[in-house]
Amino acid sequence: MRLIKLTKVLFIFLVCFTTIDPVSSQNSDKPNNAIEVNTTQCPQITSVYNRISYLLNGEWNYIIDQHKLGYARKVWENKVVENKSQLLEYNFNNADKIQVPGSWNMQSKELFYYEGQVWYQKAFDFDKKENKRYFLNFGAVNYEAEVYLNGLKLGGHKGGFNPFTFEITETLQENENALIIRVSNRREAEQIPSMYSDWKNFGGITRDVQIIEEDQSFIRDFTLQLQKDKNNVINFEVIIDGNLKEENVKLSIPELGISKTVKTTSEGFAKASIEHNKIELWSPENPKLYHVEFELNGKVLSDKIGFRTIQVKDGEILLNNEALFLKGICLHEENPETNTRTNSKVEAKRILNTAKELNSNYLRLSHYPHNEHIVRLADEMGIMLWEEIPVYGDIDFKNPATFALSQDMLNDLITRDKNRASVIIWSMANETKISDERNTFLKKLIDFTREKDDTRLISVALLTNKERSTETVKVVDDPFGKNVDIISANQYSGWYGGTPDIIKNIKWQIEYDKPFVFSEFGAGALQGFHADSLTIWSEEYQEWYYKETLKMCNSIEKLRGISPWILFDFQSPKRQLKPYQNGFNRKGIISSEGVKKKAFYVLQDFYKNK
């Protein structure tokens, strides 16, 4: 356990509330008779890395439970053999070890393609202080988690890429705590993503686990951003968790000379607007962040916040009222050195440095919420971000449970990242087929997003119309385009259909008078395989493809950005063609070992001169 020293805390206030356990109530393999403590799954505590917290990362014990026997054996009770005649068919103390955070797939050969459930256990002591509250926070668990502390069931969570929290003040002990998590990465039709996705279904506790220490009343969440379309008005909202009475919360931005005290309502909420005419605006060229402080009852919480505006006007994307071209690349959350989930600040910085080397000013974080480290570092390093949830392909758009899960995931993402200046686009979906059910589903998500955060742009990665399109004319007329700020489309001419020599003749017909972002294009190449430019899978073919596609991009009148697919090769079990794929999608312009392919330098030069 390691103390993350407080840079002084911040963020949103929402009162913890008792919930029905989503795991046991919906689709657990068996009802479970563990005692359920009167603990609550709480609304998200934001800015966790700026709070006093104790990491539970490191070595955990684990037991594979392919046949779902854990409930019958009551493994959450963490029993040990007490005499030589006692039969106990599990033993965490003698179990195999696994690193948290991490995916089980890359830590054990027998788990490489495993989809099922695994029980995790962590034993720890804790220095519990009087008059403090404690919260157990998970950065992400893929996909479904059921959480037990000291034999008591805290609750469950579904969704593999979002944080979740339980209050454990009464359950946490000074000595010999046993934290046990049932984790399942089985795919289900009602989930997002559903049964099909073109990336590896990494299982496990994939991001940080920490115990957060707070006062009896504390700032759970806050919002601090420029008012939409105005660069001199800061809107401030704060939510307090704890004793729900009127409290004074002080906001300070020392560099701007701002000091503002607001009084919360009896529900713990307050908001205010502050006008200031000398705010230095955040941009990729000048990623200015202000040190901000929030004080409640003498305790100061802090963060670094950038202020900028983003809007669409007259066919342009405007950052701080200046026209912008998004020079981007798509990214999966996979470390090219370890081929597992990226989950550390060091890894995030390495990836962003690579994007900067490419001369990018923008990343599309595909196809799910990435870890918080990369979003915070993007603020510091001046990289704009497109963030999305994994509403991907053939989602069950008719299922209310699927919609509820999608909205919860979107809510968690926006709550976590709404104060990050780098985030300029919220995306609802990727490559979904047109239907009335899809249109209704996505429109409800957009309405929810605009109500929660109206300061960013909305997009969806669409497809071209196959019936109206030809080899040389690509039509974007998805009826859902009327609901978004930016028209985006994925298209792979020259890879899926045709060869690069047809690309130079392609014309785009975009049926909306809005900025167009080419959200995906690309071609595969096995790094180190060299041939002529007509030989598929060679670096030379991918290089030629990029040269021709980028020439075509320059001819698209409404084009205001591109994000080719993809920065690094990544694992995808459906991609088994030997000797080229071997379980990887090879469309990266950098290999799965971190070696740059020829296409990297083509795109780098294009961005340098764009």
Please give a handful of descriptors for the protein shown.
610 residues, alpha+beta, Jelly Rolls, Immunoglobulin-like, TIM Barrel, 3 domains, six-stranded antiparallel beta sheet, 36 strands, 15% helix, 31% strand
Lay out the secondary structure.
Elements: E1 2-4, H1 22-26, E2 41-42, E3 53-55, E4 58-64, H2 70-73, E5 96-100, E6 117-124, E7 133-138, E8 141-142, E9 144-149, E10 152-158, E11 164-167, E12 177-184, E13 204-205, E14 209-214, E15 218-226, E16 233-241, E17 248-253, E18 258-263, E19 269-275, E20 290-296, E21 299-305, E22 310-313, E23 316-319, E24 322-324, E25 326-331, H3 345-357, E26 362-365, H4 372-381, E27 384-388, H5 400-417, E28 423-430, H6 436-452, E29 457-463, E30 473-476, E31 486-490, E32 507-510, E33 516-520, H7 539-553, E34 559-562, E35 570-571, E36 584-585, H8 598-608
Parallel strand pairs: 25-26, 25-34, 26-27, 27-28, 28-29, 29-31, 30-32, 31-33, 33-34
Antiparallel strand pairs: 1-3, 2-11, 3-14, 4-5, 4-6, 6-12, 7-11, 7-14, 8-13, 9-10, 9-12, 15-16, 16-19, 17-18, 17-20, 20-21, 22-23, 23-24, 35-36
